[in-house]
Amino acid sequence: MLQEYARAGGYEVVATFEDIASGLKENRRGLKKVFDMVRAGEADTVIIAWKDRLTRFGFEHLKNHLEDLGARIEVVNEREERTPHEELVEDLLAIVASFAGRLYGMRSNKTKEVVESVRYAVR
What we know:
The protein has 123 residues and is mainly alpha-helical.
C-alpha cells in the first residue's frame, strides 16, 4: 500500500523497511537504516502508514530530527482527533503491550490476554 502511495505521489522508492518490533523499542534495524540513508543523502522523504508504527511516543522528536537531517516524514493515514482520554488509553495499552511482550513474547497468548484485560479495565 505504501509503495503504491509513493508511486502515485511521484516518489522514487529507494528502499522499504519493516521492523517486527514494538514502536516503543528504540533499537530497531529498519529505523536505524532509515536514519543512515537520510544522513547519507540517499532519501529525503520517509513515508509511513501510521504515526504509531514509527514510534509510540516522541513522534515529533523523530520528525524534527529527520527534518534537521534534510528529510521529512509523510503520514499516509492520519487519525481523527482524539480526546485526551482516548490518547491516554491508547498510550497505556501501548505500554502494557510492550512490557507484556517483553515478559511473555510479543506473539504469545499470554501477552494478548494481559492487553485485553487492561483494555477491558480502562474502557
